[in-house]
Design goal:
Order of helices and strands: HHHHHH
Helix content: over 70%
Number of domains: 1
Shape: elongated
Number of strands: 0
Radius of gyration: 20 Å
Distance between the termini: 70 Å
């Protein structure tokens, strides 16, 4: 029971990480200090997809499932848990690369908006020397 709960917890953390990688840049628009966590996470997420690697959390989840008496699964987390939602057929290398590119593109938009907002704020602030 404890191993099954552990595996489910790993899935929850893994899924939360994937969501953070994809949309965390937009959260950073609201909470700018989040950038320090999001940029490395987004780089890791994009790299895993573009390189065709499997995230280390996947083998951990499989190991916990096997300890619980369940069978693990082949492939990666996205293929097993998310692909069925996003894509009705199995995850291919091309789809994995497209996911990596999508992560980069979504975050480029988010950080482009962030940079634009910062520039707008800096030009809108009155200069302290000009008032004196």
């Amino acid at each position: 029971m404890i191993f099954r709960l552990g595996a489910d917890f790993v899935v929850l953390i893994h899924f939360s990480f994937v969501v953070f990688v994809v949309v965390g840049g937009f959260a950073a628009l609201r909470w700018p200090k989040l950038i320090y966590l999001h940029v490395p996470a987004a780089l890791w997420g994009a790299w895993i997809e573009l390189a065709g690697w499997i995230c280390p959390l996947t083998p951990l989840e499989n190991h916990l499932r096997q300890l619980a008496g369940d069978s693990g699964y082949a492939g990666g987390f996205i293929e097993h848990h998310i692909t069925d939602v996003l894509y009705p057929r199995g995850l291919t290398t091309q789809i994995q690369v497209m996911l990596g590119i999508a992560v980069v593109a979504v975050n480029a938009v988010a950080y482009g908006l962030y940079i634009r907002r910062r520039r707008h704020q800096s030009t809108a602030e009155p200069k302290a020397d000009a008032a004196e």
